[in-house]
Amino acid sequence: MRSKSLFRRVLLPLALAIGVFAVSAPGASALVETHYGGFVLSPGQTLSSGVARTDITGNIAAYTGEGSVNVCQRTFDNTTGIWHEGCGTNGVGNALNLMPYHTNSLTPHIMNNSGFSHTIHGWWYRT
Fold first, then answer.
1. Domains of the chain
2. What is the greatest pairwise CA distance in the chain?
3. pLDDT tens figures, 66-116
4. Which end of the chain is more exposed for a tag (fewer CB within 10 A), N or C?
5. Is the pTM of this model over 0.85?
6. End-to-end Cα distance, the chain
7. Contact 102, 56 (CB under 8 A)
């Protein structure tokens, strides 16, 4: 009988308190999205986001109009002097595609990789 009393008075409240702390532990923070571009770019024209940050996690380039247009997300790595880029039809990149370079100083860009002028949008992400 005494062991049940000890369980109810001490061990059960202790287990519940530990459980509350385990459930309410902070998780990963949400990423912050920033839009840039949205302008008509000539064939082959690149547009800079105008930022250089060490907390950038991803870059997206997208064409949202009619038809198919080749676009590129290009990110200049100010730390190494190297471009990280990818191209695709109507959209390329994601919110985490720059994680391997996350602590480097990065400047996101978008590019119209088609033969005609089009409005190209860009989004860069940071922690």
1. 32-126 (2.60.120.380)
2. 84
3. 999 999 999 999 999 999 999 999 999 999 999 999 999 999 999 999 999
4. N
5. no
6. 54
7. yes
